[in-house]
């Protein structure tokens, strides 16, 4: 009687033990691998000037608008002064064009015209006096030719003096005023550019974050465009992972996923915020088994405030969400 009862129980226990062993030997659920990252903000050098002040240290938390670093403003201030002087000169030139010629210049032009007309009359009279002397060879042909040329030159000087007087009387052309206005606008724009550049020499935090790196020290002179300060921005890090191609169709932006951080016992709830449309090269740590020869897609998983204390760079793994129906 006891044997009939023991055999079914022993058989059931053996089956459950085998099922557990088979489940333990099965494939692990697919996961996406990657690292923790923050949004990085690089503040480049606006000019090749020396670092004269550093107001923060690496690892320090900063608020938006907080001073970070200052470059030597001496050269840029000189450039600004030169640009402002050029703008003032162009302003005076434009005013002169709009006012037109002075009355004294017009009077001088009229006097020059009168003098040229007098010289022309004298040259014509001399030429006319020589012409009758040519018949009896009382005047050389060369002298007559020179007198004729002098008379023609005097007529040309009269025409030039008259044109100069007309230009002054008629005033400045509209095209010249337009050119003056354009030159003034260009000079003002150049001065404004130097003024903006001068303001950029005092680097401030564009948003709240943490100072990750200060590549240059006090007294260094960085080239234009070199990063002077690197900030890690955001309230919490995000997981940058690589989705393997067979699972790409199961993951969508907005999906809730579980993120496991290396060295932490707990998992973190995250939401997929970005999936690249183009595949990327798969890093070595994301290659596993049959997936080693497959494509991967870069994705970002946003984490909540509970992950704010996690350091950047830690390895993470993300469980794929269940397949949608």
Automatic annotation (TrEMBL):
Give start and end of each YbhG-like alpha-helical hairpin domain: 75-191
Q: Which ranges form a coiled coil? A: none
User: What's the chief localization of this chain?
Assistant: other
Q: Which residues form the signal peptide?
A: 1-23
Q: Which GO terms describe its cellular component?
A: cell envelope
Keyword ATP-binding included in the entry's annotation: no
Tell me which InterPro entries the record gives. Answer: HH_YbhG-like, UPF0194_transport
Transmembrane portions of the chain: none
Tell me the compartments it is located in.
Cell envelope
> What's the domain of life for this entry?
Bacteria
Q: Which UniProt keywords apply?
A: Coiled coil, Signal
The UniProt entry, under PROSITE patterns, shows: PROKAR_LIPOPROTEIN
Identify this protein by name: HlyD family secretion protein
The protein's organism comes out as: Fulvimonas soli
């Amino acid at each position: 009687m006891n044997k009939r009862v023991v055999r079914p129980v022993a058989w059931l226990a053996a089956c459950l033990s085998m099922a557990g062993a088979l489940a333990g030997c099965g494939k692990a659920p697919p996961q996406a691998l990657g690292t923790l990252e923050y949004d990085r903000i690089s503040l480049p050098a606006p000019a090749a000037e020396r670092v004269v002040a550093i107001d923060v240290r690496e690892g320090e938390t900063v608020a938006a608008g907080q001073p970070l670093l200052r470059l030597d403003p001496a050269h840029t201030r000189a450039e600004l002064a030169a640009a402002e002087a050029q703008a003032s000169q162009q302003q005076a030139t434009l005013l002169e064009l709009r006012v037109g010629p002075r009355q004294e210049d017009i009077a001088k032009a009229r006097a020059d015209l009168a003098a040229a007309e007098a010289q022309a009359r004298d040259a014509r009279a001399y030429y006319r006096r020589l012409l009758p002397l040519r018949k009896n060879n009382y005047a050389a042909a060369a002298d007559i030719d020179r007198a004729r040329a002098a008379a023609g030159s005097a007529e040309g000087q009269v025409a030039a003096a008259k044109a100069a007087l007309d230009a002054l009387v008629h005033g400045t052309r509209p095209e010249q005023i337009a050119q003056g206005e354009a030159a003034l606008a260009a000079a003002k724009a150049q001065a404004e550019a130097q003024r903006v550049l001068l303001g950029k020499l005092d680097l401030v935090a564009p948003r709240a974050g943490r100072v990750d790196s200060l590549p240059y020290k006090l007294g260094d002179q960085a080239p234009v465009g070199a990063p002077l300060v690197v900030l890690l921005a955001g309230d919490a890090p995000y997981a940058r992972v690589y989705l393997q191609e067979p699972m790409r169709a199961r993951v969508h932006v907005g999906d809730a996923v579980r993120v496991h951080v290396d060295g932490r016992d707990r998992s973190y709830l995250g939401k997929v915020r970005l999936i690249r449309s183009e595949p990327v090269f798969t890093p070595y740590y994301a290659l596993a088994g049959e997936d080693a020869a497959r494509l991967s897609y870069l994705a970002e998983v946003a984490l909540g405030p509970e992950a704010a204390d996690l350091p950047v760079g830690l390895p993470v793994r993300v469980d794929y969400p269940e397949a949608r129906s």
